[in-house]
Write a structure and sequence with these properties.
The protein has 208 residues and is an alpha/beta fold. The chain folds into two domains: 68 residues, no CATH class; 103 residues, Winged helix-like DNA-binding domain superfamily/Winged helix DNA-binding domain (Arc Repressor Mutant, subunit A, Orthogonal Bundle). 27% of the residues lie in helices and 22% in strands. The chain contains five helices and eleven strands, in the order ββαββαβββαβααβββ.
Length: 208
C-alpha cells in the first residue's frame, strides 16, 4: 500500500508586527548584537537610558509621529511599517559604527579592527602584540628585537625589517599601517580612511 505524499506548506514570509503590537511572545524590544530596537515615541524613557549609556539604538517610528532628532552616530530611525531587510541593514550599519575603534588581537591570533579581521601566524601575532601594547606610540627596534627573539637567539641583522615588511602587507586590508619612525623604531597606526591602505607609500615610511 502506498501512502500519499504530503508536502509541507511553504514558510510564510516574516513581517514586522503592526505598529503598537509586539510579536507574540516577544519582549518590548529586540536586538541584533548590541543594537537596541525601540518603539518611538512609546519607549522614549528607554531611549534616554540608551543614550546615557552609549548603547546603539534603532527607533521604529510610528506612521504619524515626527521622528526624533538623532543625537549621535549610534542612533538611527526607520518609519513603520518597515521591511525586515531594511531594519536588519540599519542594525548592521549601527553595529559597524559601534565596533571598537582600536585593533584587538584575540587568543587565536586573529586581529580584529572595526568590522574586519585577519588571521595571523605566530610570529606575526607576536609582533602585533608588542606593537599593540604601545598602540599609536613608538616601540624601539631594540625593544622589539629583544621581545621577538629571547636571550640566546641571534636573528639576522635584517630579520626584524623582513618581518615588519611582511606584516605590513597582511595589515593593509584592515586599514592599518606600521610606520617607520626614523632613528627610533616602529609605530602601529590607522590609515585616515578606508581606502588609504591601497594608497600607502611603499614600506609605510613616516618621518616627522
Amino acid at each position: 500500500m502506498t501512502l500519499p505524499l504530503t508536502l509541507p506548506s511553504p514558510p510564510r514570509p516574516h513581517r514586522l508586527p503592526p505598529y503598537g503590537r509586539p510579536a507574540p511572545g516577544a519582549p518590548s524590544h529586540t536586538s541584533l548584537g548590541p543594537v537596541r530596537i525601540l518603539r518611538w515615541p512609546e519607549q522614549a524613557h528607554q531611549l534616554d537610558q540608551c543614550r546615557a549609556q552609549g548603547v546603539p539604538r534603532l527607533l521604529l517610528v510610528a506612521p504619524t509621529a515626527p521622528p526624533p532628532h538623532c543625537v549621535d552616530q549610534l542612533e538611527d530611525w526607520i518609519r513603520t511599517p518597515a521591511d525586515p531587510q531594511d531594519v536588519h541593514a540599519r542594525q548592521a550599519a549601527l553595529q559597524v559604527r559601534a565596533a571598537p575603534r582600536d585593533p584587538v588581537l584575540d587568543q587565536h591570533g586573529i586581529l580584529h579592527f572595526a568590522d574586519q579581521a585577519v588571521p595571523l601566524g605566530q610570529g606575526e601575532a607576536d609582533l602585533v602584540a608588542v606593537l599593540l601594547s604601545s598602540y599609536r606610540g613608538t616601540v624601539g627596534r631594540e625593544d622589539l628585537t629583544r621581545r621577538m627573539w629571547p636571550a640566546g637567539e641571534m636573528p639576522r641583522r635584517n630579520a626584524l625589517d623582513v618581518r615588519v615588511l611582511r606584516l605590513r602587507r597582511r595589515l593593509a586590508p584592515l586599514g592599518l599601517v606600521i610606520k617607520t619612525v626614523w632613528g627610533k623604531g616602529y609605530m602601529l597606526d590607522t590609515q585616515p580612511d578606508a581606502q588609504a591602505a591601497n594608497r600607502c607609500a611603499p614600506g609605510g615610511e613616516w618621518t616627522r
